[in-house]
Amino acid sequence: MANTQKALVKACITNIEVLDTMLKSKNIDEENIRKLSDAIAFLGHASFDLSIKRREMLKGSLSKEFQVICTAQIPVTSFLFGDDLNKTLKEIREVNKIKATSTFSQEQNYGHGYNSNKRHFLDKRQNSSYEKYRNYRSNRGKGY
């Protein structure tokens, strides 16, 4: 994929050079200039899409901690993961460290007195009318 992307970039550069030559000439053909400009935009978009696809393919090879660098929020530059990968990785480590030391965690409170009773709240009532419906399966939304 990287080689395909390099070929796209070279095609884009060639088109830019032709466009530059056309703009400097005395005979300006506006229709061809517009078409060439559109072609350059399409090639640029295709190159960006390939960068995102390449990131997605690498995502599974990375530890879960660093998979966030594969998102589109990290800008695509001449390098697949941005210009300053070391800085980005350092920021990710710092954020993960803050997450790990936060004072509130749902996992800490789960099952320690909070919602630890597995019974449904309506089961706690005596002689409830709910009892007859407890095992009833609804057909709602199933197209019956």
Radius of gyration equals 29 Å
User: Which oligomeric state applies?
Assistant: single chain
In total, how many beta strands?
Answer: 0
The portion of residues assigned to helices is: 40-55%
Question: What would the principal axes of the Cα set say about the shape?
Answer: elongated
Show unreliable segments. none
Profile the largest sheet: none
Beta-strand proportion: under 5%
Structural class: mainly alpha
Number of helices: 4
Mean pLDDT: 79
The succession of helices and strands, N to C, reads: HHHH
> End-to-end distance, in Å?
48 Å
What secondary-structure arrangement, pairings included, does this model have?
Blueprint: H1 2-24, H2 30-59, H3 85-100, H4 106-109
Helix pairs in contact: 1-2
Name the features:
mainly alpha, 4 helices, 144 residues
Concise account of the structure shown:
The protein has 144 residues and is an all-alpha fold.
How would you sum up this structure, described in words?
By secondary structure, the protein is an all-alpha fold. It has a domain at 2-83. It is built from four helices and no strands. The protein has helices spanning 2-24, 30-59, 85-100, 106-109. The radius of gyration is 29 Å and the shape is elongated. 2% of the residues are buried.
